[in-house]
Amino acid sequence: MTGWISEFMNHPATYLKIGWLQISVSNLLVILLMLATFALAVFLPFPKGHDDTQEPRT
Amino acid sequence: MSISKESKHAFDAAPWSGKTKRYDIVKEGTIALAVVAIFALFLSLLMGSPDETPLTFKGWAVSNPDNFYATTVQELAGTSGTATYGAPYNKGAEGLNVGPLWPQKWMGVTHPIDSVNDFVISPLSTQVMSTEIASAVATWKAAPDTQKQDWATAYDDAITKVEGKISDVPAGAYGPVPALAQGLTDMAKGGALDAALLSQGGFFQTDNTKQILFFGDGSYLDDAGTAANLQGGTWGMMNETGRYPGQAWLWLYSFWYQIPPFNNEESKPIGANADLYIMVLMGVMSAGLIFIPFIPGVKNLPMRIPIHRGIWRQYYDENGIKRRKK
Q1: Number of CB pairs, chain A paired with chain B, less than 8 A apart
Q2: Distance from chain centroid for Cα B174
Q3: Contact (CB<8Å) A20/B259
Q4: Is residue A58 part of a domain?
Q5: CB contact under 8 A, B243 and A25
Q6: What's the pTM value of the predicted model, to 2 decimals?
Q7: Which residues of A touch B253 (CB under 8 A)?
Q8: Which of B17-21, B37-41, B218-222 has the lowest mean pLDDT?
Q9: B167-187 confidence digits (pLDDT tens)
Q10: How far apart are CA B127 and CA B186, in angstroms?
């Protein structure tokens, strides 16, 4: 695979280092995306308007 | 209206009494699989895959011939990492332990590797040897084991004293060891050692254990790992070469290697056996995750951190249960 994106990806990564904690920017982005997806799953309302819902059981 | 904590918990524990909806888990799973497959295909086409230059014995012997040479001598002297590893490759050490647990030793030698013959003598014997190398191999094979050990150990010690600079090693009673090491270095420089090590297992060979172990005994693989931020002591378990994201889900496994006493190999017993201690620790923690519903205190965490009331907030609102104390 060639192309500028592939070339960009195969260059040495940037690492963030705070004391003993070290993480690549790529990994940090993936973790933030996962957290954002989780937050969306919690906070987005369930879709409404489907006609296949059933009333509460009594 | 204020509802007591007990009532809220009782409501949480009661069967769902809100609206229900038909749910086809196979349909849902198929849609999820298709979305992920399209996403993975798109990203693969866009970004390609990690494309590092392969590590080869030729590359090692050409870029750092002294280190390759010194490592060969260590293989002959039995002082290399492989020769002193223990099970499953040999009986060079008893292996890691946690208290009375010695799993490495108990499993035994299941993948025998003789660093002298597998890494040095056999590869040299696969090629057409010069008179000098053929004579060195013959001398080595004919000598008693104690004599071989004396030659190789003396040369290994001499190389260590001059800090690996081969040209500075004083003359001594090293027998055929210098010729063998030079022969293997020349063989590696020509590219023949890569093929010779790979061909030891059969026609369709996929077992690269010997190559990896030999690489690991010198500085070539170690330096490449450091350059790519793949060392265990710098969260390398989570990383990938280049700018590709790595195994972020291994953060907890990797975390232990960053802190004392796990990050100090000299610290006994934990640091010296860190791999096994961390494996056991993660095993216990994984079991804890599986058995959350049965662990007192932990099993009540969803009541203390009621994320579920946020997800199904409409249901809770309709039933007069507030999600947060005001």
Answers
A1: 94
A2: 35
A3: yes
A4: no
A5: yes
A6: 0.83
A7: none
A8: B17-21
A9: 999 999 999 999 999 999 999
A10: 12
